[in-house]
Amino acid sequence: MNMVEIITRKKLGEALTAEEIDFFVKGAADHSIPDYQLAALLMAIRLNGMSAQETTHLTLAMRDSGDVADLSAIPGVKVDKHSTGGVGDTATLVLAPLVAACGVPVAKMSGRGLGHTGGTLDKLESIPGFRIGLSEEEFVRQVNEIGVAVIGQTGSLAPADKTLYALRDVTSTVDSLPLIASSIMSKKLASGADAIVLDVKTGSGAIMHTLEGSVELAKAMVDIGTLAKKPVTAVVTGMAQPLGTHVGNALEVKDAIDVLSGRTKGDLLEVSLLLGSYMLMHAGAAETPEEGRRKLTKALESGAGLEKLRLMIRAQGGDERVCDDWKRMPQAAVVREVACGKTGWVASMDTTALGLAAQAMGAGRIRKTDPLDYSVGFILPVRIGDHVWAHTPLCTLFARSEEEADAAEQAIREAITFSETPVERPPLWYAIVTKDGVQKAE
Ligand code: URA
User: Would you put residue 265 in left (φ > 0), alpha (ψ -120 to 50) or beta?
Assistant: First the structure.
């Protein structure tokens, strides 16, 4: 088979055959096809798209490009959850312990931050001593013993996606529906879960900015799951502003602990309960989302969820005392309070710009090899629709230096607009997509 012919056919908008897809996926996994040819093909796919059939075949070929985890040694239905990526989105650290506290095993493989979005693994590694690299045997043992483990994906899981994702990141081809759907679903199908709950973000901080694009992406991923015989529920949730009030690795761990301790309510808790309730339904532990929510709320109020987080941190070598004393987490050199400086209503946030501000402070990577500073980021207590005065706190910055705090302050001010008239709060979720159709929020 000839790679130039494959690129040409996609350049002309033709559908690729299963053999052609297998050929370039294998070449991406074993690096036998040079990056420049893969990059050209990715751009042709970005510009001309793929049919549902091509997208499904690409997903399955990427799934089969490496190992497929076997979680059959863990009794019960294993439900995975995946977010398409957001800012201040630490729902995994809230819902994994809560779902486990309801008796449903959570064997979760998570990822690192990408671009302006944060990653669960980076957040967990901000806890002193925490190990994300368990062997499959340790992973299974831990889930069987305490009900929950969150680890990094093994190097051999969907290696073709690893190559293609790294190329997409640097060739402006991330925002392609078939490429996103196949990238996410190939990893989820390879991670061995029995059912999957997807959190598809929409809004200024999401990979898909428009609601139509996000619903299309949700539908494509549900369809792939259905064809692969894995039940999938996709919830389209808002990313018009950061999900939690904390942005940055150690800060987001604090946010999750505050939610699990019952000290913090708000959107992070609400979205975690929503996604968690669908996880319980897939596992057969709840009949309806309302029943799921009641069970999760009980686990929250009894402290059972926080206890699970504590057990998970201890089991993975981390300092569980962070659950009671946040000062044991990395602390920033500079802490600065910033006021709104305006009177009115918070009107909009450029959430991607907010994520990039945290990344520039050192919370995310600009190059793949950049070390992270776990201590940095910001707390942003204001929400769209809030009324503020000039003296109302806008944010607290946690920075490495006064200069970096200055740059972050300017970026955050530029990312947030105010209105002189009241502004409606954006919805928490917009649609729930299953194989049976799309349920829109009222
Ligand atoms: N997350 C992924 O894993 N892949 C994408 O393409 C986008 C988000």
Answer: beta
Active site residue 187: yes
Ligand 1 center to 184 CA (angstroms): 5
Q: Is 369 a member of any domain? A: yes
Catalytic residue chosen out of the listed positions 10, 46, 63, 82 = 82
How many domains are there within the chain?
3
Nearest partner of 191 among 314, 70, 353, judged by Cα: 70
- Give the range of the structural domain holding residue 375, as residue numbers without chain letter: 331-419
Quick: pLDDT tens for 345-361: 999 999 999 999 999 99
**Catalytic site includes residue 31:** no
Catalytic residue among 176, 183, 186, 191: 183
Is 109:157 a contact under the CB 8 Å cutoff? yes
CA 221 – CA 214 distance, rounded (Å): 11
The enclosing domain of 44 has a CATH number of: 1.20.970.10
Tens of pLDDT, residues 244-261: 999 999 999 999 999 999
